[in-house]
Design brief:
Blueprint lengths: L4 E3 L4 H10 L4 E3 L5 H6 L7 E4 L9 E3 L3 E5 L4 H6 L1 H6 L1 H8 L4 H6 L2 H7 L6 H8 L2 E4 L3 E3 H4 E3 L2 E2 L7 E7 L3 E8 L6 E9 L8 E6 L6 E2 L1 H9 L24 H20 L14 H14 L11 E7 L3 H8 L2 H7 L3 E6 L4 E10 L2 E15 L7 E10 L5 E14 L5 E14 L7 H22 L12 H18 L1
Parallel strand pairs: 1-3, 2-3
Antiparallel strand pairs: 4-5, 5-10, 6-7, 6-10, 8-9, 11-12, 12-13, 13-14, 15-21, 16-17, 17-18, 18-19, 19-20, 20-21
Helix pairs in contact: 14-15
The chain binds flavin-adenine dinucleotide.
Flavin-adenine dinucleotide binds next to β2, α6 and α7.
């Protein structure tokens, strides 16, 4: 951490002056996330602007229609605040459930929200409350604040001042902890604005995917009928959940639905009607993971630690998707952060890809080896293996083995499209390895989702109706083949 200057302003005006003067400066709240990232060499601000003496960020104010909590208020202060305990018990309990006393004494509401960890508790509470986040420049509705993995709507020189949470009739947060870190494996917050029938209900889930999200189907069902029964039969889409060593996507979606029922039951008095959790402590999650997977997803590949997988339907025929996957000119705009890609021979490519892994941005010089196992001309199913290995300077190395399967899948309209399934085992070494599986896999999942969305667009849209390849695709294919022929001469 050598060379970092420490600044300790005492007013908001001074904080803003520091940020204007030093564009590479970073705000320091309790340092629970930021200092850890700096120790690992993952972020290197020129200056740390410590917010602990800025009185404007320390307030808690509770009135009959809302509560205001300043950005620098620690979790411990929220948990111990008598008025919050009385009028907003859910907020006090959420804060009390964060990590251990040491973390709660130092970690802050503002730091947690600005960090937007995909498994943090505060984003779920704030989103379920429909809170307003007030910054040095504007007011941002919670629905617009949490953008993506470790990303928010905050601009570089914007300071989060605090959060205004409206009073509501019912609010509960229930989390199932990851036992080692005590972050939420999954956490669900449910709020109901008033006691009236058809009062608006908000359901926010953390720990499920790349970041906190609402569950609109559950909200609509509960708004019509405020009872656990209203949730019967509702399922979350496993495609938006992450799989990691702790739990599969299907386990997480199942857990989210169970926790949502518990949160509602806490208000409706229906707890007795819910199945009781098993008595065992730590192995409970893993045992349940196996049961859910074996019952509902018998075709999932055997789980390897760190493996991720996905499945997508594309409207184009297998031969067209196959050609696109083997064509670097098509691939480059589809790979998020791909700065260049070069074909070395029929099966080898080199690429430079800039990847954001949570708070870290690493530029990988990557070697790609393609091994087409079966091509469409040999009849289905079609399979391709990719070996990727990349060096991200002094941060470390990354590698992955990816297996892609393609087969024809008929749409509801009876037209032939492609079902594309992939399975990848990413591995990091060096400092990057210390980022931890949760972060790496959430990033990998986010990047692969972006890749397939872009591929679908390049191939001519996501509709299930048959469409000819887009002009863009045809032009690129034609141009790339022309270039290859030209340079072979
Ligand atoms: C072991 C452990 C377990 C944890 N378990 C949980 C858990 O179960 N649930 C949970 O919700 N959290 C958990 N946390 C997170 C923790 O409680 C902190 O909230 C989180 O790490 C942020 O730390 P901080 O407040 O010290 O902010 P810092 O680390 O100082 O800052 C984090 C980021 O926010 C930015 N930032 C800080 N303040 C502002 C501001 N006012 N305006 C704009 N940007 C700002 C910083 O520049 C930095 O990028 C855990 C943390 C640890 C270490």
């Amino acid at each position: 951490m050598s060379g970092v200057q420490y600044l300790r302003p005492t007013s908001l005006a001074e904080v803003q002056a520091c940020l204007q003067q030093h564009p590479q400066a970073q705000l320091l709240a309790g340092g629970q996330s930021l200092l850890a990232a700096m120790r690992l060499g993952l972020t290197q601000p020129s200056h740390l602007v410590d917010l602990q003496d800025v009185v404007e960020l320390q307030d808690i104010r509770v009135s009959h229609d809302h509560v205001w909590i300043g950005a620098m208020v620690t979790h411990a202060r929220v948990a111990a605040h008598a008025d919050i305990q009385h009028h907003h018990p859910m907020l006090a309990k959420l804060a009390h459930g964060i990590a251990d006393q040491q973390v709660r004494n130092v970690g802050t509401l503002g730091g947690s929200l600005a960090n937007n960890d995909p498994a943090a508790c505060w984003p779920a509470g704030v989103l379920a409350y429909g809170a307003t986040l007030v910054t040095s420049q504007r007011e941002i509705a919670a629905d617009d604040f949490f953008s993506d993995l470790f990303t928010t709507a905050l601009r570089p020189v914007e300071v989060l001042l605090g959060v205004r949470l409206p009073a509501c009739a019912c609010a509960t947060y229930v989390k199932y902890e990851q036992p080692a870190s005590r972050f939420a494996m999954v956490g669900v917050a449910v709020t109901r604005a008033t006691a009236h029938t058809h009062s608006p209900v908000r359901v926010a889930i953390t720990g499920l995917g790349h970041g906190v999200m609402r569950w609109p189907d559950a909200e609509a069902a509960l708004q019509g009928h405020w009872s656990v029964q209203a949730l019967d039969g509702l399922r979350l889409d496993a495609d938006m959940a992450q799989t990691d060593v702790h739990a599969s996507a299907s386990y997480r979606t199942h857990l989210a639905a169970v926790l949502c029922r518990r949160a509602v039951a806490a208000h409706t008095g229906e707890e007795g009607r819910l199945p009781q959790p098993a008595r065992t402590r730590f192995p409970r999650a893993l045992a349940h993971t196996e049961r859910v997977d074996s019952a509902q997803h018998t075709r999932q590949p055997a789980h390897q630690p760190g493996a991720i997988s996905g499945s997508h339907h594309l409207a184009q025929p297998v031969s067209l998707v196959w050609d696109a996957l083997l064509d670097p000119v098509i691939l480059q705009p589809c790979i998020p952060g791909c700065e260049s890609i070069q074909r070395l021979d029929d099966t080898h490519y080199s690429a430079v890809v800039k990847v954001g892994l949570g708070p870290v941005s690493a530029r990988f010089a990557t070697q790609i080896q393609l091994q087409p196992v079966r091509s469409p001309s040999q009849g289905e199913p079609t399979e391709c293996r990719l070996q990727l290995s990349g060096q991200a300077g002094s941060l470390g190395q990354g590698s992955a083995e990816v297996v892609v399967h393609l087969h024809t899948e008929m749409s509801d309209a009876g037209t032939a499209g492609t079902r594309l399934m992939w399975h990848a085992t990413p591995q990091l070494s060096g400092q990057l390895a210390q980022l931890g599986n949760r972060l790496v896999q959430a990033s990998a999942r986010s990047l692969s989702t972006q890749f397939f969305v872009r591929l679908t667009q390049v191939l001519g849209g996501a509709s299930t109706a048959p469409r000819p390849p887009s002009i863009f695709y045809a032009w690129r294919t034609h141009f790339s083949r022309w270039l290859q022929r030209f340079f072979k001469r």
